[in-house]
Amino acid sequence: MATIQKTKRQKESNSEKWLRLRMGIVLALFLTLFVVITVRVTNLMLINGDALGSYAERQHKVISTFITKRGNIYDVNGLSFAVSVEMDSIYVSPKDVKNPKRTADLISKVLSVDSRVILKKLKSKKNFVWIERRVSPSKTMRVKELKFEGKLDGIGFVKEDKRFYPHRTLAAHVVGFAGTDSQGLSGIEYKLDKYLKSTKSHYIAVRDAKGRRLFGTDISESNASINSDVTLTIDVWAQYIAERELKNAVEKSNAEGGAVIVMDPVSGEILAMASFPEFDPNNFSRYSKTSWRNKAISMNFEPGSTFKIFLASGILEDTIATTEDTFYCERGLFRVNNTDFHDYGGDFGLLSLSEIITYSSNIGAIKLGKKLGEKRYFDYLAVFGFGKPTGIMLSGEEKGIIPSLSSLNSVDFAALSFGQGLSVTPLQLITAAAVIANGGFLMEPHIVKRITKNDGDIVYEAEPKVKRRVMGDETAKMVRDMMVSVVESGTGTKAKVPWFSVAGKTGTAQVFDVNTGAYSESEFIVSFVGFLPAEDPKLVILVVVDSPKSDISGGSVAAPTFSRIAEDTMKHLKIYPEDMLIMGDGIKIKDGADVSPLM
Amino acid sequence: MGIESVVPGRAIRIPKEKSLWRENILKTFWAYIFSAVLIVLSLFFFLWTRVSVVTINYEIDELSTNHATLLKENKEVTIQFETVITPKNLERMGKKLGLIYPERSQTVPVRENGNNTKN
Description:
- The complex is a heterodimer.
- Chain A is an alpha+beta fold.
- Chain A has two domains: 66-232, Penicillin-binding protein 2a (Domain 2) (Alpha-Beta Complex); 236-282 and 295-573, DD-peptidase/beta-lactamase superfamily (Beta-lactamase, 3-Layer(aba) Sandwich), CATH 3.40.710.
- Chain A contains 19 helices and 23 strands.
- In chain A, the strands form seven sheets. In chain A, strands 2, 3, 4, 5, 10, 18 and 19 form a seven-stranded mixed β-sheet that branches. A five-stranded antiparallel β-sheet of chain A has the order 12-11-23-22-21, sandwiched between helices. A three-stranded antiparallel β-sheet of chain A has the order 1-8-9.
- In chain A, α13 (362-372) crosses α15 (410-417).
- The longest helix of chain A is centred in the first third of the chain and has 46 residues, at 2-47.
- Chain B has a domain at 20-100.
- Helices cover 63% and strands 0% of the residues of chain B.
- Residues 1-5 of chain B have low confidence and may be disordered.
- The chains are: A alpha+beta, B mainly alpha.
- The interface between A and B is large, with 41 and 32 residues.
């Protein structure tokens, strides 16, 4: 019994020993593994940690560059004037080209480029040479097909943005154009380049083993500014009407060019700004540089008789004379300091102030000028904004030329009285004329309505801005009535617009010939500035035609153009006189009939 | 712990006495196993969520790419449309079709809100 128990205890003791031994072995094994792992981790994390970390980073992280497209330019209704489209540019890696001659021949056929030019590029010693940038999609497709067929070696494609102007010549002088590298070169493209230009932003993303970027793993993003879109005050249809009629007027009168501006007198918004000759910004390099010029802001011209309305405003505002006061107009010939001045509309005798404007008497204007005095006249020129740029957001604006008061003699001042001997820009002239339409307030003209960032933030929004009050409401009304007479019975009868009362003034100015040092007898700049409806002006329109050959008066060239632009633009803007709307009130409309306007 | 009984000349098999130590070891063992299973399950759950996130990320990335492509197509079509409906083009097409603008006398405007128009 005792032996059995002893044996049993011995067995138990052995089993326990064996268990302890096994556990010890397992523990030792685990401890060894733990030590090994700890050593390895220490090695990886502490000793080689930095090097391995950066190695892993290089494998997993990728720096992506995000290039935003150049901002768009829109008209007031959101139609695109300028957009960026993605196109392929074709490049070559010359060292990879096996058969340069055959490659050059194939590419030249597709791109319509001299094969010798391409061959020269293919034989270049550089590693990367552009074959052609921003190639049309159809041509790119054909080159890609050739490459796919294995006929082209070393040829590659890169996506690049190209500026596209869907309306082509329309508003080209305002919108301007951008160069090959998307930098603004002219017009709004240049002036607002800092808002429009494309921006680069870099961010670090994590990629997987296959190199795919993991969404939502952007680790950092640079603070690159977001580019913006620009909305203009220009209305595509108003612009089209202005350009169409300006082109007709210039071509009909064999003129050299011209400009038209359509403005809202109350807000100072420019609805249309046309300049001729025209150009297509999609292919601007094919046109002469002179055609790129926006004459509406850069053309310094002598305004001629249109200027008489500002002289009359000064006379009436200073109460020097009333509209009924008469002046003797010397039967068409007046001599000032041995210089003869003529009236072109007739040999007038006594004319009232109102009639001087209606019949555009130069001699009457000279006498009015004398009454007002040089100093006051120059004061009025300054408050009307002449001699200074208007500050519109466009590049290349001129400020006009106003001679200094001290340099004037009596002949110069006589000429200044009827708008000769000084220069203004079309924009200055229409802005000043808008003062009369706007009850005496000078508004700041603007062509940019809004600048909006891509994330929706508004960077700039134009508000109607009164620069100053130039004259009283009563004076403005009197000048307006005189301008109505010009259209009703004076020199501007061809500016009439059916159903609307129109106020306006014609201008025919001789061009100063720098070669002869005298005014030309054959070169004139004709103009018409007016607004309608006269009693509550909605539009001010200026038409300037440079050097017409077949007809040389503002009343016969610019006034009819004004009439057509005014009629169509009013129709487009759905502005109808009350009399016409009353006629429409009698019409019974069928249910569901479309009563939207025709334009 | 078991009752020991000995019959002379015959050995009786007596069940082994479980020691307290052995029981404790077993309990601890099962506790370890349970914890290990729990940890493994948690790891699997964590892994599953990570894999799901990555899979969803890939799907979102693909959809974003599709979205961008569609936006690009939409923009291109809009540009094409705007190029076609420019006033110059519309007038040219109208002329081709023999359309003319109505004279002023041929049109009567009606108020847009229709306030004073007989219905």
